[in-house]
Structures are given as C-alpha cells and as structure tokens.
Amino acid sequence: MFKHIMIAFDTGESSSHAVNVGVRLAVENEARLGLIYVAAPPVGYISESALAAQRVLDDERYRAQSLFKEIRSRVPDTIDITQFRPEGDPADEIVAAATKWGADLIVVGTHGAGRFGSFLLGSTAQSVIRKAHGPVLVVRNPWTE
Predict the structure, then answer these.
(1) Measured on CA atoms in the order 51, 57, 61, 63, is the torsion positive or negative?
(2) How many structural domains does the chain have?
(3) pTM, whole model, 2 decimals?
(4) Which of 25, 28, 128, 133 is deepest in the core (most CB within 10 A)?
(5) Which stretches in the chain have pLDDT values below 70?
(6) What CATH number is attached to the domain comprising 49?
C-alpha cells in the first residue's frame, strides 16, 4: 500500500514509539524509509550569542547522528533508508522533504520530550497535517498521558 514512508523523529519517548510504528509499516509494506530529524534553530538567542546558538545546533546534529544509527540498527537490511537532516521550522521541513522525496505517508509522534520540546509537539503535528500533500499518521505513545 505505502512505498515511501517518511518518519519524523526527535529525542522524545513519543517520537521513539512513532519510529517503531513507522518501521513496522515499512517492513510490512516492503517500503522505502525516509528518516527526518529537523534541527530547529534555538529561539531567543541574540546576535551576541551566535556562538552559543551554533553550539546548540552542533549538539542537535550530534544527537541526530546517534539516533539515525540507533534506528538503522532496528531496520532490516532489506529496507532502503534515506536520511534527511534539515534545519529550520520542523513542520515546514518535514513537509518539504516528504514532498520532494515522494513520501506517500508521513509518520509523526504526538509530542516530544526531548531537550527541544517544541519539536513534534501537538502544534507541529497539526501543522504537518495541514500542510502535507498526502496522509499523515500521528502516533500517540500509549504509555504517556
């Protein structure tokens, strides 16, 4: 049914559950898998603290690399994976990458619990739903309230 599944993730527990669901769908559908981690520029930094803002983005890139490796270890070798690592507004970047890549399903978590809680919060998932050109599966972690 789905041949290109895009999974948006961050460091949160709900995001991890969405990854599990997305990977399972990719395996069941023998689909290609797109993994996207958006490094959101820090909010509230003034120009004098550009170096601090850059460190935050560097930390995000490092975390993303670790998460890509961890997710890859859970995916069978028969599944083709494409990684996306844009920076910017999470919803805009998720939809842009999914559209360009040709995703026929986007999988997102309902909220994140990572350092940047704004990533994959309900408002981001809602924005992805509004902007996406195809179906969006919003996965709620059953172990959170």
Answers:
(1) positive
(2) 1
(3) 0.83
(4) 128
(5) 41-51, 53, 111-122, 143-145
(6) 3.40.50.620
